[in-house]
Description:
By secondary structure, the chain is mainly alpha-helical. The protein is built from six helices and two strands, in the order αααααββα. It has helices at residues 3-26, 35-39, 49-65, 95-114, 118-122, 134-160; strands at residues 124-127, 130-133. The protein has a two-stranded antiparallel ribbon with strand order 1-2. The two termini are 24 Å apart.
Amino acid sequence: METTVQKALQSQFSAALKMLETAVTDCPPDLWQGRLWQERKLRPEFAEFWYIVSHTLFWTDLYLSGSYDGFAPPAPFTLVELDPAGVLPDRVYTRQQLQDYLGHCRKKSADCINALTEESAARVCHLVWGDVSYLELLLDTLRHIQEHTAQLNLYLGQVRNNPARWVSLDQ
């Protein structure tokens, strides 16, 4: 694989994960489980801050693997995200657990991208929603991280007037 492509992928994954990490760090404790929504007698469940972070990291981890076969997230995370019934995890993950998972995903992305070859980039990944090359799956994973990071930053901005902080590629 051309090192220019690897360097670009690595810097983009690093920046996207850093922006997610910043959102996790910036989330005040009273918003972690959507308490403001609960006070308004609304329960967002799948829109709770912790869950969006957990969901984002789970799929990042899985897609970096490129296959469902043999995939297992690190403890205490489970495969509940794969349940077609769409159920929540049986616990609320702590900020520290999610920061640790983020570190796991950061290392895994670096390892996967550093090992990328023309052959591995072209490998077809068979997913529930379709078949794509591993390179395309990496790009899709980047968009997924960015989508949910923007969602979290929008929430923080609306509720706490907390502006999102852009992470430049050299950070």
